[in-house]
Amino acid sequence: xxxxxxxxxxxxxxxxxxxxxxxxxxxxxxxxxxxxxxxxxxxxxxxxxxxxxxxxxxxxxxxxxxxxxxxxxxxxxxxxxxxxxxxxxxxxxxxxxxxxxxxxxxxxxxxxxxxxxxxxxxxxxxxxxxxxxxxxxxxxxxxxxxxxxxxxxxxxxxxxxxxxxxxxxxxxxxxxxxxxxxxxxxxxxxxxxxxxxxxxxxxxxxxxxxxxxxxxxxxxxxxxxxxxxxxxxxxxxxxxxxxxxxxxxxxxxxxxxxxxxxxxxxxxxxxxxxxxxxxxxxxxxxxxxxxxxxxxxxxxxxxxxxxxxxxxxxxxxxxxxxxxxxxxxxxxxxxxxxxxxxxxxxxxxxxxxxxxxxxxxxxxxxxxxxxxxxxxxxxxxxxxxxxxxxxxxxxxxxxxxxxxxxxxxxxxxxxxx
Length: 417
Prior knowledge:
By secondary structure, this protein is of the alpha+beta class. Helix content is 28%, strand content 27%.
C-alpha cells in the first residue's frame, strides 16, 4: 500500500500535465480522505509519515502546529461540540481518553451506615450513592495520599467532603385510611439525591459559598415504607475515572470524522429528489433551475451519518462520492454535571501537555545524565518524574518542595493533577 502511493507520487513528476493532476488527486485522497464504498472502507490507515511520499516533507515540527486548531461549535451547561482539526487519530483518541479517565472529580468513596432498614442491602445502597455526581470543584481539593505505612491519610477539609443522609418513612395520618396512592399515604417514602445534606468541614463554607450538593436532586435512591429508615454518613474524595467510573466527569466523550460528500455531474429532476432522500435531512438541498426543475447540491455534509443508503441504488451510486476528512474530528462531550464541559476540555488539554512535558523530561534526563534502573522503574510504574526528583534529592540532601525534580518550589493555581 505504501509502495503504491509512493509510486504514484514519483510517476506524477514525469507524466503529462493532465495525467499528473489525476495521479496527484489520487495521492491526495489517500493522504487526506477515508473513502466509503458499499462493501468496504478504503484508506483507513494514516500514510502522512516521513519517507512515504518522495519529495513531501511530512516530518513533525513547529510548522506542523500552524494547521492544528480547535473550533467550538456549541456549548451548554452539560454538552459541548467542537472540532479538532489538523491532528492524527492517535492524538484525538488520546484527548478523548484523558477526558474520560484522567480528569479528576469528587465522588462518594466511603460510607458509614448507621442504620438501614430498607429492602436494599447496604453494599448496593452504598454503590448507588457512589454513582451520584457531586457538584464540587475538584481543583480546590487534594488527592488523599498515603502514609509511610501505606494507609490513607486522615480526612480533612482539603481532601474530603462530608455528606449525610437521614430519612425515615412515616404514615401520613391526615389522609383517608383507604387511600392507595403511596405519594399521599406515606411521608418520605421516596429517597432522592436531593435529601443528601452537606456538612462543611474547616474552611469549606468560605471556599464554597454556594454550597456542595448532587448535580441532580431527583435521582431516586431507595423506596421506604413506614418504620423503615436510612441513616448514612458519606465521605467524598477526589479521584480519576481510570480507578472507578464514578469519578469520570463525562457520560460520553466521542468523536467522528467530518463527512465529505461530492456530487458527480449535474443531477436534476426525480433523481435529485431521490438522491436527497437517501441522506439525513439538511445534507442535500434541491436548487431551483427554472421551469419547475431542481438540481441536487451539497448543503451541509456535517449533518450526515454516512449510512451509505445511496449506495444501495444502482442508478444513484455512481453519482456521488462518500468520504471522510482524515484529520477533521467532530467531538461531542456530555458532562455528568460535576464539571462544565468547557472545563473538562481545558483540564484534558492541560493534562495532555503535562504528559508531553513528562516524556520530554524523561528523555532528556535519560540521554544527558542517564537514569538508573530504579529511576526508570519509577517512571514506568508511576508515570511520575517528581518521584525521580525526590529520589535524587534524597541522595543529595536537597529539598524539593513541589516534587517536580527541580529542587525549587513553584507557585501554582492549587490544581492537583
